[in-house]
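Hi F.,

I've been meaning to write this up properly since the lab meeting, where we talked about keeping a consistent format for the predictions we share between groups. The idea is simple: the sequence comes first, exactly as it goes in, then the structure tokens exactly as they come out, then a line or two of notes. No screenshots and no reformatting. I'm using this chain as the first example so we have something concrete to point to.
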Amino acid sequence: MPSQAKAYAAQSATTPLAPFSFERRDLRPDDVAIDILFCGVCHSDLHTARSEWDGTLFPCVPGHEIVGRVSAVGSDVTGFQAGDLAGVGCMVDSCGHCPSCSAGEEQYCETTGFVGTYNGPDTVLGGHTFGGYSDKIVVKESFVLKVGHDEKDLAAVAPLLCAGITTYSPLRHWNAGPGKKVGIVGIGGLGHMGIKIAAAMGAHVVAFTTSPSKIEDAKKLGAHDVIVSRDADQMAAHANSFDFILDTVAASHDLDALTALLKRDGTLTLVGVPEHAHPSPAVGNLVFKRRAIAGSLIGGIAETQEMLDFCNEHGLTSDIEMIAIQDIDTAYDRMVKSDVKYRFVIDMQSLKDAA
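Output, unedited:
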């Protein structure tokens, strides 16, 4: 029989998140049931819950940075057993057989698109999927990740399931590492992980910020140098010098100032999706140096596991502020003001204690 789950949900775009109960599916042979311990709070959660992006399905239970403990496994599951630590990221299914899925790039599924951990089609119970702002979740084994970090670090591991993989994947794809000069634009939930990961990969890391007050923070995170992007002289001093720049900013901005900093054959990769389109880039800036502007979307399951293992090996976690689930709307309001260093994480014990 399906089990009752407790959660916090948005019932509309304008109402606060509030307690909500629903059914999680019965365990299928290839399923893993997880008791959720911690769930990170992503800006995507806010955009979806407040219907700032098209297509929100209500009631909406956000959350796709999930860390928990396995409570039960289906009869065909071989990689997990009850008591194991496990993670679930941004997706819980895909078609499994298109060229992208076959290549382990499920996030680019070409047949159905990946099934989001929340606000995606629930192909088992019908309706739509409910995410990690809840006490439990059931996910097929092929979309569950092994967590090797120490238990004391689990809350800070949760944001790796989105912020970590969103920055790791492009850094890996464009070969960040020793001998490469890598820029990270924006020092927030994504950017702070980009700095940590690029530094651990051995790259020379330069952080970009509009706020001089963030210079010391960026250096503590691992940046070797920091550019205040509003300072034209600082920007000009780095012209034609970057192998790769990762732009994590989710607001519309001029890309030309960044592409001008790339070497010949350098790439600017965007992972932030702005509400309004960026101004059209200057074509000559690209043509005369064979530069590229690219995009990147989270990462496949195998690469997400690789990222978790890399972060464990290098002692990397997210910088977090723990909250109770009852404070989620206050956290959203603070996120809008960029008032968090650098990721909120919900202690799901707060949900259980309120039951």
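Notes:
The longest strand covers residues 31-41.
The mean pLDDT is 97.

If this format works for you, I'll send the rest the same way.

G.
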